[in-house]
Design brief:
The complex is a heterotrimer of chains A (203), B (202) and C (180).
Chain A lengths: L3 H14 L10 H6 L4 H30 L8 H23 L1 H14 L3 H14 E2 L2 E2 L3 H30 L11 H16 L7
Helix pairs in contact in A: 1-7, 3-4, 3-5, 3-6, 3-7, 4-5, 4-6, 6-7
Chain B lengths: L1 H7 L15 H6 L4 H25 L8 H23 L1 H7 L10 H11 L4 H30 L2 E2 L2 E2 L13 H28 L1
Antiparallel strand pairs in B: 1-2
Helix pairs in contact in B: 1-7, 3-4, 3-6, 3-7, 4-5, 4-6, 6-7, 7-8
Chain C lengths: L1 H47 L5 E7 L2 E8 L2 E12 L4 E8 L5 E8 L21 H4 L22 H23 L1
Antiparallel strand pairs in C: 1-2, 2-3, 3-4, 4-5
Classes of the chains: A mainly alpha (203), B mainly alpha (202), C alpha+beta (180).
Chain lengths: 203, 202, 180
């Protein structure tokens, strides 16, 4: 159960089968907003992957060692959002100081991430999937981290695919009322349909 | 009359879903049935009204620099209240909405209204704004959900419409949600553009 | 610096107030939430073994179950089973008689995909109970297997298998333990 395959299956599941954007609809706002060209889309994806991974580590630790021992599970929403917001702020300051070049690429995206459903979503999902009756399952911490990373990777993949399509869509003759967001949703729908082909796989 | 405008704008001109396109994650995820849509809509409306009132009340005490964290704390509090209430009084609804209830906290509509409206305006106007936005969000959700439930499970509010109709499962799955909202936004754009051009012609 | 302190204090005050409000809400809703969970379980128990007149909660080696009695005579066991589904846990109560034959399966909580896996609970129009769960009734727990004696839900083989495997594994384990 706890072999390496369990972790690989989590990655495949979050990237392809239950892709965060295309099947869970988490992180949809930046998916529509920032997917106009490939460069920013990938930067956003990397920033999200970094934050989802770190947020998984932080929120799991806090849930297991602070909220459960004190019987404060009902403060989950409040604590998680505060932790994520503080972490994003902190990361922004550190990156700005240590690597201005990286900050120029990722900076503005980091600011947008606090209210990104994907980050908060993966934190809550980790708790729902890897804790049973208030107790962590075997390998729960590593699985959470892997799921956090996989969620970000799946987000990046969807962003990359979508921005590639949208760059070409610029030259297509789309009815005026369908320009921008509406046609993006239609394209996303077709992508989601394609990703549905992965469902049913379980490794 | 002008105050009333704060209420009306959320329903049509600044509809959070179709016009501003905020808070799309829950819109698409829970619109598999009309029942879920109503539940989600009212939960979000409650959080909107509650946090808007509170933020408007304390808007003069909160320093500008720490306003976002303060807003987040207030919103998260109301979200948790909804979460607990729903578990206690509507357990079935709470089950079918699942993680999308706590996710109201990152719903951009709520923080967006806090930042753009209630942090600047008096309480009464903020309540109207929140009610309008909440209602606008709810009816958009119900509209998407009715289309999806009708086509995807052949029922409306849980009542089967016709036994002879084999519903395409596609509509109730993720692609159907994206297709529905894409077409609806397109339709809205079309109508609004047309009403605008009519005004300029006349 | 004093400004920073002021900001910190205001934030702390708001957090404190929020925690207080939530603590009160939690205390008020807690008994209600627990009552709801108990009622759901009770309803499930009564659907599975309607002839029993009393259920006593017990546990053996970490497995929670109810003993169903009718006038002091053992009618069967209702075991809490948790399966690992597509999007999370599937919580069930499974009724089994002392001979190892399934009396009924009730799903308490699941997060499967609406339209696919969530159909484990789907009741077809004009019928009283979910067709998928009905298949378990009257079968020997140890033999349950998808495609052999349980038909899977179209497009949701994983959810179907999750339910079936969890029932078979947990019940065989339980029977071995309870007979000891």
């Amino acid at each position: 159960m706890d072999s390496i395959s369990a972790y690989i299956s989590i990655i495949i599941s979050t990237v392809f089968i239950n892709n965060f954007i295309l099947s869970r609809f988490l992180g949809l706002c930046p998916f529509i907003g920032v997917s106009k060209s490939t460069g920013p889309a990938v930067s956003m994806g990397i920033a999200v992957t970094f934050v989802t991974t770190m947020a998984s580590i932080l929120t799991w630790t806090i849930y297991e060692f602070v909220l459960i021992p004190f019987g404060l599970e009902y403060l989950r929403t409040l604590t998680f959002i505060l932790v994520i917001a503080s972490f994003v702020q902190f990361a922004e300051i550190v990156i700005q100081k240590k690597s201005p070049a990286l900050y120029r690429v990722l900076g503005i995206y980091l600011a947008l991430i606090t209210t990104n459903c994907a980050v908060f979503g993966v934190a809550v999902l980790n708790i729902d999937m890897f804790f049973l009756h208030g107790k962590p399952l075997a390998g729960s911490f590593l699985k959470s981290v892997v799921q956090g990373f996989g969620a970000g990777a799946g987000f990046t993949l969807a962003m990359l695919l979508m921005s590639g399509i949208r760059e070409r869509l610029e030259f297509a003759e789309v009815p005026r009322c369908m320009k921008d967001a509406p046609i993006t949703f239609i394209v996303a729908s077709l992508m989601s349909l394609a990703f549905l082909g992965f469902s049913g796989f379980k490794i | 009359m002008k105050v009333f405008g704060e209420f009306i704008k959320g329903l049509w001109r600044e509809n959070p879903t179709f016009r501003i396109m905020l808070g799309l994650c829950p819109t698409l995820a829970v619109s598999t049935s009309v029942e879920n849509a109503i539940g989600m809509g009212s939960a979000a409306a409650f959080v909107l009204v509650g946090s808007n009132i509170f933020i408007s009340l304390v808007r003069k005490i909160i320093p500008d620099k720490v306003r976002i964290p303060c807003f987040i704390v207030i919103i998260a509090t109301f979200v948790t209240i909804v979460e607990l209430m729903m578990k206690a009084y509507a357990p079935l609804l709470s089950r079918s909405l699942g993680i999308y209830v706590p996710l109201i906290v990152v719903n951009c509509i709520v923080l967006g209204r806090a930042e753009a409206f209630s942090s600047k305006e008096p309480v009464f106007k903020s309540i109207l704004d929140a009610l309008g936005m909440g209602l606008g969000f709810t009816w958009a959700l119900v509209m998407i959900a009715s289309i999806r439930e009708l086509l995807g499970s052949g029922s409306l509010l849980g009542f089967t419409i016709s036994k002879h109709f084999e519903p395409p499962l596609f509509m109730i799955l993720a692609p159907g949600a994206l297709l529905t909202i894409g077409l609806l936004i397109g339709m809205f754009n079309h109508f609004i553009a047309r009403s605008r051009s009519r005004k300029t012609d006349g | 610096m004093s400004q920073l302190l002021k900001f910190g204090l205001i934030l702390c005050a708001i957090c404190l107030a929020a925690t207080l409000v939530l603590a009160v809400t939690y205390q008020v809703t807690k008994p209600k939430i627990e009552e709801q969970l108990r009622r759901e379980e009770r309803e499930a128990l009564e659907t599975i073994l309607p002839e029993a007149d009393s259920f006593t909660e017990k546990s053996v080696d970490g497995l929670d179950y109810y003993e169903a009695l009718k006038g002091g005579e053992l009618k069967g066991y209702c075991v809490k089973v948790t399966g690992s589904g597509y999007n999370g846990f599937i919580r069930m109560i499974v009724g089994v008689n002392p001979a190892g034959v399934i009396e009924g399966v009730e799903v308490l909580e699941q997060q499967e995909t609406p339209g696919l896996g969530a159909d484990i609970n789907k009741i077809k129009p004009g019928e009283k109970d979910p067709w998928f769960l009905r298949q378990f009734k009257g079968k020997d727990a140890a033999t349950l297997e998808v495609k052999k004696n349980i038909d899977a839900i179209t497009g949701a083989t994983i959810s179907s298998r999750a339910v079936t495997d969890a029932v078979r594994k947990t019940i065989t384990e339980f029977l071995a333990k309870v007979k000891r």
